[in-house]
Amino acid sequence: MKKKFFLFSLLLLLLTSCNRTTEPIDVTVPIQISQSGEEIVDVEFMLVQVKEVLREYLPEGYYRGLVFRGSCADIPNAKGKVVFHFIQVNTPCFLCNKPQILSADAIVDTTLGTFDLKIRDVTNFYPNTEKKPEVSNETFEQVLHSVNLEIINLGFDKTCKVDIFQRKDAWGVMCDPIVDENGIRCDFDIDKETFKVKEN
Fold first, then answer.
1. Is residue 9 assigned to a domain?
2. Starting at the edge strand that comes first in sequence, how are the strands of the sheet with 80-90 ordered?
3. Domain total for the chain?
């Protein structure tokens, strides 16, 4: 009887350990936008601060990419939201058929000087876990400059919103709306090496 109870308890423990769930985490933290105290947006300095906070929640989390969201008119000053994306892959537990994947987004408001850290368990969504290189200030400035020039060259309505997101081999750009009232489309890629608009 004791042996059966022990086996049953062991089985229950194993099954329970496989049912790993992580409660969503939402934290708002102040952040310095630049080291000099000026209004220049320093993504390298911001990333250092974000990593320090992230380490408390996802000690093995690694960088997955960057997104800039803001008004098309504010692209030159990088006023808007810079989103740093991270992933942590936890080793599968006994009897688990896949690793647990935790996603973290650090959403930095470059106007307010704060960032929201949002952590979610995305295991069941099979996200891309590939690492990407961290973005330097020079690269960030070059990308924003190229995007701003292309939107001007297109003659696109500058009252639009824009998402600029880091891909493996390029920077994707998508305006909102994608097509303005004059029928001009704003949806293109910037080459990660030359910073020129890629041909479709």
1. no
2. 25-30, 114-121, 100-109, 80-90, 62-71, 161-166, 170-179, 185-191
3. 1
